[in-house]
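Chain A, query sequence.
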Amino acid sequence: MTTESTGKGRPTPKRKDAQAKVKVSSLSPVVTKEQKRTQKLASRQDRVNSRAAYMRGEEGALPLRDRGAERRFVRNYVDARRSIGEYFLPIIFVVLVLTLIQIPIVQFTAIALMYAVLLAAVVDGIFLGRKIKRLVHAKHPSSNTKGLAMYAWLRSTQMRRLRAPHPQTKVGDVVN
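Chain A, predicted structure.
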Protein backbone atom coordinates (compact mmCIF):
# COMPACT_ATOMS: atom_id res chain seq x y z
CA MET A 1 0.00 0.00 0.00
CA THR A 2 1.36 3.37 -0.91
CA THR A 3 0.57 6.61 0.77
CA GLU A 4 -0.34 8.24 -2.49
CA SER A 5 -3.19 5.86 -3.27
CA THR A 6 -4.81 6.09 0.13
CA GLY A 7 -6.04 9.50 1.11
CA LYS A 8 -8.95 10.79 2.99
CA GLY A 9 -10.35 12.58 -0.02
CA ARG A 10 -10.62 15.98 1.62
CA PRO A 11 -8.23 18.66 2.86
CA THR A 12 -7.14 18.75 6.46
CA PRO A 13 -9.27 21.24 8.38
CA LYS A 14 -7.71 24.28 9.95
CA ARG A 15 -7.01 23.93 13.67
CA LYS A 16 -9.44 26.67 14.75
CA ASP A 17 -12.24 25.07 12.70
CA ALA A 18 -11.57 21.66 14.22
CA GLN A 19 -11.47 23.04 17.76
CA ALA A 20 -14.63 25.10 17.21
CA LYS A 21 -16.42 21.96 16.01
CA VAL A 22 -15.36 20.06 19.11
CA LYS A 23 -16.46 22.86 21.45
CA VAL A 24 -19.99 23.04 20.04
CA SER A 25 -22.05 20.44 21.85
CA SER A 26 -24.86 18.74 20.04
CA LEU A 27 -27.01 19.17 23.17
CA SER A 28 -26.62 22.92 23.52
CA PRO A 29 -28.31 25.22 21.06
CA VAL A 30 -26.25 27.38 18.77
CA VAL A 31 -26.11 30.85 20.31
CA THR A 32 -25.16 33.93 18.38
CA LYS A 33 -23.42 36.96 19.82
CA GLU A 34 -26.66 38.93 19.66
CA GLN A 35 -28.49 36.22 21.63
CA LYS A 36 -25.71 36.20 24.23
CA ARG A 37 -25.88 39.99 24.53
CA THR A 38 -29.68 39.87 24.92
CA GLN A 39 -29.41 37.12 27.52
CA LYS A 40 -26.74 39.07 29.44
CA LEU A 41 -28.90 42.22 29.48
CA ALA A 42 -31.93 40.22 30.66
CA SER A 43 -29.83 38.61 33.40
CA ARG A 44 -28.53 42.01 34.52
CA GLN A 45 -32.06 43.43 34.60
CA ASP A 46 -33.24 40.43 36.66
CA ARG A 47 -30.44 41.06 39.17
CA VAL A 48 -31.31 44.76 39.36
CA ASN A 49 -35.00 43.97 39.91
CA SER A 50 -34.17 41.32 42.52
CA ARG A 51 -31.88 43.72 44.39
CA ALA A 52 -34.55 46.44 44.32
CA ALA A 53 -37.13 43.99 45.71
CA TYR A 54 -34.65 42.97 48.44
CA MET A 55 -33.99 46.58 49.40
CA ARG A 56 -37.76 47.24 49.58
CA GLY A 57 -38.06 44.29 51.96
CA GLU A 58 -40.29 42.06 49.83
CA GLU A 59 -40.50 38.69 51.55
CA GLY A 60 -39.79 36.60 48.44
CA ALA A 61 -36.62 38.51 47.63
CA LEU A 62 -35.13 38.31 51.13
CA PRO A 63 -32.44 35.78 52.01
CA LEU A 64 -33.39 33.14 54.60
CA ARG A 65 -31.72 35.03 57.45
CA ASP A 66 -34.12 38.00 56.93
CA ARG A 67 -37.37 36.13 56.29
CA GLY A 68 -40.31 35.80 58.60
CA ALA A 69 -42.68 37.95 60.60
CA GLU A 70 -40.35 37.95 63.62
CA ARG A 71 -37.39 39.25 61.64
CA ARG A 72 -39.58 41.92 60.01
CA PHE A 73 -40.76 43.00 63.47
CA VAL A 74 -37.15 43.15 64.72
CA ARG A 75 -36.05 45.23 61.70
CA ASN A 76 -38.94 47.65 62.16
CA TYR A 77 -38.35 47.92 65.91
CA VAL A 78 -34.63 48.59 65.49
CA ASP A 79 -35.23 51.07 62.66
CA ALA A 80 -37.76 53.01 64.76
CA ARG A 81 -35.16 53.91 67.40
CA ARG A 82 -31.79 55.56 67.52
CA SER A 83 -28.83 53.72 68.98
CA ILE A 84 -25.25 54.65 69.79
CA GLY A 85 -24.01 51.78 67.62
CA GLU A 86 -25.09 53.42 64.38
CA TYR A 87 -22.77 56.34 65.13
CA PHE A 88 -19.78 54.12 65.88
CA LEU A 89 -18.30 54.22 62.37
CA PRO A 90 -18.37 58.03 62.05
CA ILE A 91 -16.91 58.30 65.55
CA ILE A 92 -14.09 55.92 64.57
CA PHE A 93 -13.31 58.21 61.64
CA VAL A 94 -13.11 61.21 63.97
CA VAL A 95 -10.89 59.20 66.34
CA LEU A 96 -8.60 58.32 63.43
CA VAL A 97 -8.22 61.99 62.53
CA LEU A 98 -7.65 62.98 66.17
CA THR A 99 -4.95 60.35 66.65
CA LEU A 100 -2.97 61.98 63.84
CA ILE A 101 -2.59 65.08 66.00
CA GLN A 102 0.73 64.83 67.83
CA ILE A 103 -0.62 65.93 71.21
CA PRO A 104 -0.76 62.98 73.65
CA ILE A 105 -3.82 64.20 75.59
CA VAL A 106 -5.83 64.57 72.35
CA GLN A 107 -4.78 61.09 71.23
CA PHE A 108 -5.61 59.58 74.61
CA THR A 109 -9.00 61.31 74.71
CA ALA A 110 -9.80 60.10 71.19
CA ILE A 111 -8.95 56.49 72.04
CA ALA A 112 -10.93 56.73 75.30
CA LEU A 113 -13.90 58.09 73.33
CA MET A 114 -13.71 55.16 70.93
CA TYR A 115 -13.70 52.59 73.73
CA ALA A 116 -16.49 54.40 75.59
CA VAL A 117 -18.70 54.36 72.49
CA LEU A 118 -17.86 50.70 71.87
CA LEU A 119 -18.78 49.81 75.44
CA ALA A 120 -22.00 51.82 75.21
CA ALA A 121 -22.91 50.06 71.96
CA VAL A 122 -22.36 46.64 73.52
CA VAL A 123 -24.42 47.51 76.61
CA ASP A 124 -27.15 48.96 74.39
CA GLY A 125 -27.07 45.73 72.35
CA ILE A 126 -27.51 43.59 75.46
CA PHE A 127 -30.54 45.58 76.61
CA LEU A 128 -31.92 45.67 73.05
CA GLY A 129 -31.57 41.90 72.73
CA ARG A 130 -33.42 41.24 75.97
CA LYS A 131 -36.22 43.60 75.01
CA ILE A 132 -36.50 42.14 71.50
CA LYS A 133 -36.80 38.59 72.84
CA ARG A 134 -39.49 39.67 75.30
CA LEU A 135 -41.47 41.60 72.65
CA VAL A 136 -41.22 38.86 70.02
CA HIS A 137 -42.26 36.21 72.56
CA ALA A 138 -45.29 38.35 73.50
CA LYS A 139 -46.23 39.00 69.87
CA HIS A 140 -45.42 35.52 68.49
CA PRO A 141 -45.60 33.08 71.45
CA SER A 142 -44.86 29.95 69.41
CA SER A 143 -41.88 31.37 67.54
CA ASN A 144 -38.23 30.62 68.19
CA THR A 145 -36.31 33.68 69.40
CA LYS A 146 -32.88 32.12 68.86
CA GLY A 147 -30.58 34.54 67.05
CA LEU A 148 -32.98 37.50 67.15
CA ALA A 149 -30.98 39.41 69.75
CA MET A 150 -27.79 39.24 67.67
CA TYR A 151 -29.78 40.07 64.52
CA ALA A 152 -31.21 43.17 66.22
CA TRP A 153 -27.86 44.26 67.65
CA LEU A 154 -26.03 43.87 64.32
CA ARG A 155 -28.72 45.86 62.54
CA SER A 156 -28.58 48.56 65.21
CA THR A 157 -24.83 48.95 64.72
CA GLN A 158 -25.18 49.65 61.01
CA MET A 159 -25.55 53.21 59.83
CA ARG A 160 -29.20 53.80 58.99
CA ARG A 161 -28.53 54.65 55.33
CA LEU A 162 -26.50 51.47 54.81
CA ARG A 163 -29.02 49.02 56.27
CA ALA A 164 -30.30 46.33 53.97
CA PRO A 165 -33.17 45.95 53.44
CA HIS A 166 -33.88 49.66 53.75
CA PRO A 167 -35.72 50.77 56.90
CA GLN A 168 -39.51 50.59 56.54
CA THR A 169 -40.17 52.77 59.58
CA LYS A 170 -39.04 56.23 60.56
CA VAL A 171 -37.27 57.07 63.80
CA GLY A 172 -39.88 57.56 66.51
CA ASP A 173 -42.61 55.43 64.87
CA VAL A 174 -44.48 53.04 67.15
CA VAL A 175 -43.96 49.44 66.04
CA ASN A 176 -46.68 46.89 66.71
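Residues 104-139 form the longest helix (36 residues). Residues 76 and 125 are 16 Å apart (CA to CA).
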